[in-house]
Amino acid sequence: MTGQHVNSEQDITILGKVSTAFGIKGWVKVYSYTQPMTNILEYPVWLLNVNGQWKEYKLRDSRPQGKGLAAALEGINDRDQALALSQVEIGVPTSDLPELDENEHYWFQLEGLKVKHTDGQLLGQVKELFDSGGGNQVMVVTQCEGSVDKQQRLIPFVDAIVLDVDLDGGEVQVDWDPDF
């Protein structure tokens, strides 16, 4: 099962990445994009993007490690094998993700959406989201065709500012002063 190639047609959601090797027994340090970060451990099989190919790896063991996680994967038994996975993306089939509540979204669903002010001004589009610590997410909004200026904005992803997310319409409505 370990290292088996995966059908590349499959829709895959990135949940984190391997940062580097941990110790000498093949463990890896994991940077998780999930909230809370331990949610990534709920998936017994991870897809790792090794040299552009998605391969399956079974999660053997895991534990918290500093501000991140450490994980042991089946078939990865020494430091060299673990180091070979440095900076590799960790994904799961999108179909394996739990259904979200109506007002919840996965970060990957927001990337590329247009960001509009309540008065209709186009501020740009979502380039990415990141965790600023303390459980706060921030949207990185960059210019796009028709945006009000060429400025990059960091907009907190909180209810008071993000008023509506319309995945079908491809936009996020925010109460955020364009001059800020």
UniProtKB/TrEMBL annotation:
Which Pfam families has this protein been placed in?
Answer: PRC_RimM, RimM
Show the InterPro entries listed in the entry. Answer: PRC_barrel-like_sf, PRC_RimM, RimM, RimM_N, RimM_N_sf, Transl_B-barrel_sf
Protein's UniProt keywords contain rRNA processing: yes
Domain Ribosome maturation factor RimM PRC barrel, first and last residues per copy = 107-177
Alphabetic keyword roster: Chaperone, Cytoplasm, Ribosome biogenesis, rRNA processing
Transmembrane is among the record's keywords: no
Report the residue ranges that make up the RimM N-terminal domain in this protein: 15-95
Q: Where in the cell is it found?
A: Cytoplasm
Q: Which domain of life is it from?
A: Bacteria
Q: How does it assemble?
A: Binds ribosomal protein uS19.
| Role according to the record | An accessory protein needed during the final step in the assembly of 30S ribosomal subunit, possibly for assembly of the head region. Essential for efficient processing of 16S rRNA. May be needed both before and after RbfA during the maturation of 16S rRNA. It has affinity for free ribosomal 30S subunits but not for 70S ribosomes.
- PANTHER family, per this entry? RIBOSOME MATURATION FACTOR RIMM
Q: What family, per the record? A: Belongs to the RimM family.
Q: What does its UniProt record remark on the domains?
A: The PRC barrel domain binds ribosomal protein uS19.
Protein's name according to its UniProt entry: Ribosome maturation factor RimM
